[in-house]
## 1
Amino acid sequence: LHVAASRSPSGTLSSVLSMHMEYKKRIFTPGPTEVPSQVLQSLARPLVHHRTGFFREMHLSIANGLKYVFRTENPIVIWTSSGTGAMEAAMANVTLPGDKILTTPCGKFGERWCELASTYGLQVLRAEAEWGRVVTPGQVEDALKNDSGVSVVFTTLCETSTGVCQDVKEIARIAHKYGALVVVDAIAGLCSEELDTDAWGLDVVLGGSQKGFGTPPGLSFLSLSRDAIARIRTKGHPVYYFDLVKALDSLEKGDTPYTPAIALFVGLGEALKIIREMGIENTIERHRRNAQAVRSAVAALDLKLFAEVPSNATTAVIPPEGSASAIIDLMDKRYGIRIAGGQGKLAGHILRLGHLGFYNESDMYTMIAALEATLLDLKLNPSPGKGIKSLLESFHKDGPIDV
Amino acid sequence: LHVAASRSPSGTLSSVLSMHMEYKKRIFTPGPTEVPSQVLQSLARPLVHHRTGFFREMHLSIANGLKYVFRTENPIVIWTSSGTGAMEAAMANVTLPGDKILTTPCGKFGERWCELASTYGLQVLRAEAEWGRVVTPGQVEDALKNDSGVSVVFTTLCETSTGVCQDVKEIARIAHKYGALVVVDAIAGLCSEELDTDAWGLDVVLGGSQKGFGTPPGLSFLSLSRDAIARIRTKGHPVYYFDLVKALDSLEKGDTPYTPAIALFVGLGEALKIIREMGIENTIERHRRNAQAVRSAVAALDLKLFAEVPSNATTAVIPPEGSASAIIDLMDKRYGIRIAGGQGKLAGHILRLGHLGFYNESDMYTMIAALEATLLDLKLNPSPGKGIKSLLESFHKDGPIDV
């Protein structure tokens, strides 16, 4: 004990142990998500230079892999940035100063579209809903009917701050009916929800490496329809790093305008190979089953679901009043299972159980067992085992995924 | 032969072999630079979540390591972006619409400051020099004397497109004399050149992970003086992802406003540990010696130096007319040694030999031997061995670095 403690100039033995065990912890948040071992290992390959045929071929192969997931023939630009960077790229390139745009805020990420639009001085209409509910296509139609001249509708497929999934297909249909382009934040929705960029006519779709793609954060993606491409060629706002015209021109040759996060490209390439092998339909089905099983477990544990229309990416749960932080902390410290809490005004009020990414049934047992154990520790689990029993039944009913 | 070739649906045997050997190739470019093995291995650790004490502690420790390299007590913000992102962050946050600024272009990266300033609609003064030469402090003083009201001077320490190093210390002194802030692109200069942020009063200094820090690309850095911080609180241009106020506020708690490239933070932490152990003075001295030895080898091979004031980061060389591309290609294909060519109007006219990053004397022998061999193959090396002999003498005269 003395020896171990003396190794740490600052901490106690328990803090030393917990630091060393950090890499043992499991992540069950809506992002970042766990990275499969073969992806992690690929990050450690010697760095290759990006102005080479090798990198360009890899880049184009990754762009094709993304097209498979997005279900599109549209070009897909990859940014070295978080998903927010891709959101700003969409806002700054697809709108012109003074444009009137429509947003569909019902959580933190929908509000981010509004903040971005304000930053760029746009007129912002809001078809909004309380956090936890979804914005209906009817609301979008009313907004577009009452206020003409909306150039772009900015919406969100999975609003991970509240756990809902919105009807982006129908919202896009209505937007087009009124002559507006539609930009979809599908950062948490890609791989986990049905999404058909081309069949639904989505003009811009956004994704991020650290979500369903099981790659570390640092890359974001953006697909562009022909109409969106026509729009971005008129420059209105100042853009440089996020200049979509430069990015598209570079992409044709497999290049990026500036030095890309090469190691993360290598990792993403490996992750896309797995998704291709698994198939995108099976990937979405796996997410649907995990989400359904987790919801049944949560209900069996007498916890309330927060989301009106729950997504396959994350399950938002209302725990007994005042217990959220204690549950999250104890799951982390005692069981090494990291779930997420609420964001913004939901901080301290909800739990968010992540099942977005490369998670299988065993992972769901691990997470729900830790939740059950934590609730038991906190005297909030009157009949231990009910959650796991419900998971068992849900997965058993579904049978194995045909992969 | 038949079996190997049949494995590749598209390529010949030689293309298959060269693809498989890509990870064996050595990088001697001004960036990205080679990544030490312990940094590469750290990238493959299981992903940790960023909203945790573990990440915040790592982030603050990295920020401290960067302060040691920058020689500053100023806060240092880390962006998930290439160095160009940090350049845009500086331009967009430190200037106001309509500002008059001074640039010192003498190559591609100096021109980038001008392009950024135009993007943001600023009045751009230029104290410029031909590519290959440096902008003198006298030119900067003349420009500031003749045209009052310049708010910020944007300059470049190492202009890697031409291989020169500028007198940023003196440029900063003059800028301050005329009441202007000074922003220094030290992306290629950090770790390789003398730079003292606080003693020289540099208001904003920029760095990038893939340069002297030997970490894969994807992170950029930006230090802010008190005067710069006062300036950024007045918002003029639209900024969201690169909002420095938000980034500074988050940094106090060890946070980033948006999901950071976590795996690259882990790698950067390992790289900074090595730099600390080696010492920043020794690190710069190692770069000085490598650069000096490479210049002597280049002269011995009867190649001309391109840079008026050569930097420690890269040696720009004028090869015999019309031979640049052939030299670069053959060094890459036959010897697996990747150097860089010219950029912009220098494409096809110069070679750039990189010695920025974690390179030792053995690495310089490797690079110069490949250069000699390539020149021999191309019948451009009349007395083989002179380059290596010159390297031997240069390093021998210096003796071992006292580490």
## 2
Amino acid sequence: VRPDSTMPTPTRILLSRSAAPLVERIAALCPEAELHFEDELKERPELLGEIEIVFGGLTPEQVTAAPRLRWMQSMGAGVERLLTPEVRAHPFVLTNARGIHAETITEHMFGMLLMHCRRLAGAWDLQQQRRWEPERFRSRLDLLAGKTLGLLGLGAIGSHSARVGRGFGMRPIGLRRRPEPHPDVEQVYGPDEALEFFAECDVVMNSVPLTERTRHLMDRKAFAALKPGAIVINTGRGATIHTEALMEALRRGQMGAALLDVTDPEPLPPDHPLWVMENVYITPHYSGWRPDYVEHTGKIFLTNLRRYREGAPLMNVVDKDEGY
Amino acid sequence: VRPDSTMPTPTRILLSRSAAPLVERIAALCPEAELHFEDELKERPELLGEIEIVFGGLTPEQVTAAPRLRWMQSMGAGVERLLTPEVRAHPFVLTNARGIHAETITEHMFGMLLMHCRRLAGAWDLQQQRRWEPERFRSRLDLLAGKTLGLLGLGAIGSHSARVGRGFGMRPIGLRRRPEPHPDVEQVYGPDEALEFFAECDVVMNSVPLTERTRHLMDRKAFAALKPGAIVINTGRGATIHTEALMEALRRGQMGAALLDVTDPEPLPPDHPLWVMENVYITPHYSGWRPDYVEHTGKIFLTNLRRYREGAPLMNVVDKDEGY
């Protein structure tokens, strides 16, 4: 037993199965801790009552059944499904993986955008038919350079996307809660100016978390205000867009395209009309994934584990009332 | 008859049919000129003998049958098919449309690259089957950030691509004839260092013109030197790559992918193996097209027409011996 009196002993840590590659590093940092994997809960549900730290995802019911939980590090960034009133009332500290998705999600958004503008899905269809028919595409191409790129949120993802957009010769503007000037965009709009913002956008990149404030942030009013022909990209959470309003805007030809990595509902059921609408491209919620994902979330967890032991403030703490 | 003695009268200008929207502006600039469209040659082939200026594409045979031709503005950038020994011996001035393709081709190259790295073609296939299956993609994604981006040529296209690549967090390097330092890349390699260059590249973007020097620039030696897993993109001319050597490198798994807007032969015949090889994506030679293409080439032609009348040097003159 270590003589460190600040350290509750033994510390029980519950790990997601995907965190297995990190076990040695966790044990080296916290040699006295007992490590458990989530799978054990199936045979020993009472284990939950003794868990102090979690790296992975518990359900809201599991959190409320874990009275000794002091800190949970989630594997992803979005935590909206976890934050029931009971979970918000529980005094544990919640940290997330925000920040590691900026490059991945930005690349995914520009990939979808360019795939649409350069008609690459149509070219892929023709390739499978072994047909060389350039004239099908020439009149239907679009160019990023010169377009206005509207960013919903200017966190790590929005800022990186703004810089990439500027590299392509786009004019980046942003909509955010606190409309202070931001070095990566030419203009920042506040919540009261949302409709003016949407009227300026040729492309909207939406990667905001789902909170009470952002639910249906893009509603009928927003789509009505949108610049005609605008392309809307969503990699945040499906419910930040009102799906019916989106489909209406597509049907009346006001929008150029909807490029969706997230949908509402999700998973999108096979009979949902979005699957087959023209100028709609769907990827099944993997824009945040990268080859070394667990390594990256693991670094945040290990940093926080060291801080936790030292009694230092954790990084990436979620404001459970704000929801992100 | 205008009294301007420097002006041969009447000036006969032959126009591509696609230049029709420019006729008024051409006439305003050159009111004494007789304008003809290419179609007229079918009924009056002897017209060719009187043409002084061409905006569009003549065949090598037509050029040699046009003894009074003094200047031809081509609609595109690549002129390798025109430059037979007879055409090179003809004293007319050849200008091309280089410079207007930088944004378009850069966007096309990054579109193809991101479509591959983010597995968007696979997602498009699944969308058509209305299947939401993220787990198919998660282990197969790739990230641009941190990769080395090798640019063949550092003209308008290579420089713009280098800047965009840097925005994505890539490390741009370049290979060019004259290996002076260049502000948009971290290192410039000369022709003698081609194999060292290829060994550094995670991604090769090739948009060089086809000349005697660049034919089969990427041959068996280049592919053998290439960094394992590298992605090769070609939007220049198919024959700058040795197609058999490319297919061998793909078959032995040395390359990550080949993203081709141009091929050799071109058009690619339906029974060519490239169509169906794994990790090969083909677009049928339209990477240089943009919505306002004729407007952009037209601006170059009108600028040059004004200069021609003033006896001033033309822009975008092609060195017929160098081939670009």
## 3
Amino acid sequence: MNEPITSRQNAWFKRVQRAIREHAGEIVIEGPKQVADAFAAKWKPIAVVRSEGAGGTWLENDVVLSATLFEGLSDTKTSQGVLALFERPHHSADEILERRDSVAVALDGVQDPGNVGTIVRLAAAFDAAGVILLPGCADAYASKAIRASAGAALHVPIAASKHAELAAAGRPMLYADASGPTSQPPARDAVLIFGSEGSGVSKEIRRIAQPIAIAMSPRVESLNVAAAAAILLSRSYESRRR
Amino acid sequence: MNEPITSRQNAWFKRVQRAIREHAGEIVIEGPKQVADAFAAKWKPIAVVRSEGAGGTWLENDVVLSATLFEGLSDTKTSQGVLALFERPHHSADEILERRDSVAVALDGVQDPGNVGTIVRLAAAFDAAGVILLPGCADAYASKAIRASAGAALHVPIAASKHAELAAAGRPMLYADASGPTSQPPARDAVLIFGSEGSGVSKEIRRIAQPIAIAMSPRVESLNVAAAAAILLSRSYESRRR
């Protein structure tokens, strides 16, 4: 067995660091269970990186870092000494919108990766066709978002898109907003849109979609975006099953 | 005007520090709007603490700290240079359970203050009687919980209680759990219980309450606790209004 890598100049160390920072073509998955799940979901591995203490061999050429170096990349509690670099999965909004037996979710300026990940988890729970990220959203493959998705980010189709592209698809579109009627959300063949934590959806969405509200106490102004998504996606799922 | 306080030995500085750490009899509220809302909600103020830069006088004897000292207590972005110490509000579980025209929420080992605060916000949105914190929950008045509640913690009755006390109240009790039937939650005169993020409700709750499930894809194991609360509380609210 080779000695663990100890240099911060090591190419793998720097590559993982870059992947964590840049949210570009390579995704970091932390923790042995999560890494195994990503393999099972047919994600394409680039490298498995382990802390010198952590047992098990994953690929032929696992990268083994000294404990100190590994801790510089990932907190050991979350990763349990194992993380892996995968190719970013590529889905298109069209691919998500093609599935007409369910609803698609679109997020518009949802900046908090925890909220994005929680909504990805909800999309899996209520069998939505996928999650479309409009401009201003956090990366659904950021570490915090992947953790909040509780593994769902490995399975749910996620695609980046633009307002004009979404409009061009010509599907019925509803956005969660207190100004709308408190009607039953559609069961299928529609897009449910959720806006930013502070200011709701953008002007562009207000122009191309209709509002839908959730009945609640008039003394409260708004719900957390993930709570609104939970309620509308759960209702859509229930009416789809009837 | 007096000079701002610069010493970390100052009694007020130490008292606020202690309140943040200890979650005992004194609560710290951060931000001018939040502090004003707490006054409006008739919370009992002990002192308003300002950073030397922050304008406005709140009480006759506002405590003014140097900017450096203030930053040691609170990040300035959240607080905008203003925080206040209030007496912890006291509600009892009995007081919450007395209100029979709605449901009460009980949390059992919900450790994340963000989840506790989000559920307090949901209790306000769906007009629940209050939130009962069973053993193992995060403090609903911790800074992170208050922020997640978006101000609702100022208005929603919150009480600490024990399993035996809750059982003794003799009210219908349902806990969210995948093992239960996917039935409609009660509209009123009942307690809806949500368990810990990892392992659900405790054995004690399983003994004294009935499970209720949320219909969802069999491929997903569980929902985030706040998402489950959003769905069940919203349904209860809707059937209460019919």
